[in-house]
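Quick illustration for those who missed Monday's session on complexes.
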Amino acid sequence: MGPPGSGKGTQAARIAERLGLPHISTGDILRGAVKAGTPLGQQVAGIMASGGLVGDGLITDLVRYRLEEADAARGFILDGYPRTAAQAEALDTMRPPESFVVALIQVPDDAIVRRMSSRRVCDSCGLTQSVSPDSNSNGETCPYCGGDLIVRPDDNPDTVRRRLATYAEAAMPLIKYYRTHPRYGEVNGLQHADRVTAALLAHIDRGSL
Ligand code: AMP
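Prediction with adenosine monophosphate bound:
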């Protein structure tokens, strides 16, 4: 868990690779559906563009089906789900609650707004990266695959503010839900990304921070 721009996606991808587990990002799944123009994509495009949340039922069905796939049997890294207390309750019906390790990456709002202005995503390989703050909005090239680095449509300042407000509203009950979980931990997301990864891995190893 963590606000938009806290590094959830970057950290989830790293940890999934390290542990050999699938990285399941609801945001990536939804963006894929929007890009492919599927009925799901058409249904959620407007909500995502406005910075709101997709309905709990729809996103929960999506995660439920995904967790039934063979690669999730040994474990998985969930990124962006659960985002509401209702989603957390639903997740607890899919696997035993005590089997989860829960982590919150904390980053204050002012740092998020700064980060988002230099965040780009590769149109080709989907990797998120940051460019120098004075860089033009689009037009740089992905150093990994040569694709175009673009601003995520929901990373413009107005939508970022709305996404932060959406997060603030849903996060309080969600964090309250997990605070008493035996394997809940909080990590300072302002640290260097490598330190955040190390802290998360240690948390997973120990089961608590
Ligand atoms: P993310 O990539 O995690 O920032 O997600 C991008 C957008 O997808 C969010 O702003 C929401 O509109 C939608 N979304 C992703 N995950 C969820 C979720 N668990 N519940 C509701 N909406 C979600």
